[in-house]
C-alpha cells in the first residue's frame, strides 16, 4: 500500500489525521471497517449504540425476525465464516442475528477499532486540506481523509405527533427502541399503531400473551405466510458446499436471492395453470412470492392484479369473520407495489377473542390521553402503546449529522431542495464522503441486504483504495454523472408499480406531506452493478479526482 496520504497532509487540528472514519457498526459498517483495515488504513468507527448490530441491536421487539430466507442473510466475504456458521432457523430471529454479528466482530478483531456509545454530530470538509473534521457528542474531534456513513436506512424512528400523547400514563415505546430488559406485556391492554412489516411481527407474537390487543390499522397490508422450519445439519453442509455457486448467483440476481428458475412472463402461463403456478410459489413461504411469480409482475398491471387476488383469497381463507377479513385486505393498491412482509400467524391472530381490529380509515385517532387512545368514535383504554410506525428511511440517520461539504454547504439543506445521489453512494459537492443504504440504489429498499451491503462496501473500498494509491486528495462525482444516474433512476423506477404507489416508505414525502422521490432503485442489482463496475473499470470517468 502506498504511504498514507493522511500522513503527509496538513491537518486542521494539528494532529495526525486518520485515513478513514466509519460511522455505524451494523451489518454494512462492520464489513466496511474490516475491508478498510485490510487495506492497511488507519480507521476508526463510531457507533451510537453500546454494541454492534445496527438494526439488530435496536430492534429487539417481540417477534423481530428477518424476512430473507436461509442461507442468504449472512456475510459473503469469508468462506471460513460460512464453514463456521450454524444457522438454526430458515428465517433467523433478532437474537440469532445479533449473536452472529458479534461473533463476526470478534473473529475479525474489529471491536478495538470501534468507539461505542458515541454519536457523530458534525462532519465538515475542509477544502484546503481535503480532510473531514468529525465531531462527536462526546466533543471529540478527529480528522480523516474519507468518511463512510454506514448509518443504516432504517434507524431514525418516526413517531407520529398525536395531540396529548405526552400525557399518556402507561408505557409508550417505538419498536426500534425496544428496551433491552423487555416490556412486561403479560395480561396487559396493549395498542399497536402500525400494521406493516414490523407491526405484523409484533402483533402475531404478542397476541397470545397480552390481555387485550387493539390493532390500529391505517392501511391494510398484503402479507405472505412464512415457512420457518429449523435448519438441519445436512442443509448446513449443503450450504457450505454451494458457497461459490450461491455467491455468484445471488450477487447477479435481481434482488439478492438465488432461485433455481427464472419466473415466466404472465402471458407465458396458460390461464388454467396460473393458480397452480402461484400455489407452488406461495408454498415456498418466502419472499419468492414477491419477485418470483411472473417476470413482469412489477410492470404488467394484469399480472399484478392476478397475484393480488390470489393473495387476497389466502387472507380470506384464514380470517373467520368475513367483515374483519375484508378490512384486512388491501383493495386500493396491488400486491408487490409496497414492501411485502412475511407473517407467521398474523391473520389467525384476528380469530382470537382478545384481538380487536381498529380501522383508522373509519375512525381516525384524534387524541391520546392519560388512559389510552381516542378515535373519532371510541376510546380505547390501554396500559401500553406500541408505535410500529416506521422510519425516516434512507436519509434520516444521515441527516441527523450536520454534514458540510465543499464551500460549507449543508447536505441536509441540499437534500431538502433536491434529494440526489450518485448510485446511492456519493453526492456531488461532498468529496470523499461515501454512504451505504442511501437513496437510489437497490440497497435502499429492494435487496436482500447482505448482498447489497457486500457490493456497496466493496465498491467504496475499491474507490478509496484507488484514490489512496494515486495519492490524490479527493474524489467526488461530477454533476453530469449524478444527473445521468438520477435520470436513469427515474426512467427505470417511476413507471413500475412501486413507482406508481405513492404511499410506502420507498417514497419520501416533502415538507408539505406530498409524495416526492422514490428512493428504491427498481432496475435490479445486475444493472446497478454494471454501472458501478463501469465507473471503477474506467478509472472513475465522470468523477472529479483532485
Ligand atoms: P413501515 O413499513 O413504514 O410501516 C409503518 C406502519 O405504521 C404502517 O402500517 C403505517 O400506516 C403506520 N403508520 C405510520 N404513521 C401512522 C399514523 N400516524 N397513524 C397510524 N398508522 C401509522 O415501517 P415498518 O417498521 O413496519 O417497516 C419498515 C421496514 O423495516 C420494513 O420494510 C422492514 O424491511 C424493516 P400506512 O401504511 O402509512 O397507512
What would you note in describing this structure?
By secondary structure, this protein is an alpha/beta fold. It folds into 3 domains: 5-156 and 393-545, FAD/NAD(P)-binding domain (3-Layer(bba) Sandwich); 159-221 and 341-390, FAD/NAD(P)-binding domain (3-Layer(bba) Sandwich); 259-319, no CATH class. Helix content is 32%, strand content 17%. It contains 19 helices and 22 strands. Strands 1, 2, 3, 4, 5, 6, 17 and 18 form an 8-stranded mixed β-sheet that branches. A hairpin with a 3-residue loop joins strand 13 and strand 14. Helix 2 (27-38) packs parallel to helix 16 and helix 16 packs parallel to helix 19 (525-537). It starts with a helix and ends with a strand. The model is unreliable at 1-8 (pLDDT under 50). The site of ligand NA7 has 18 residues, from helix 6.
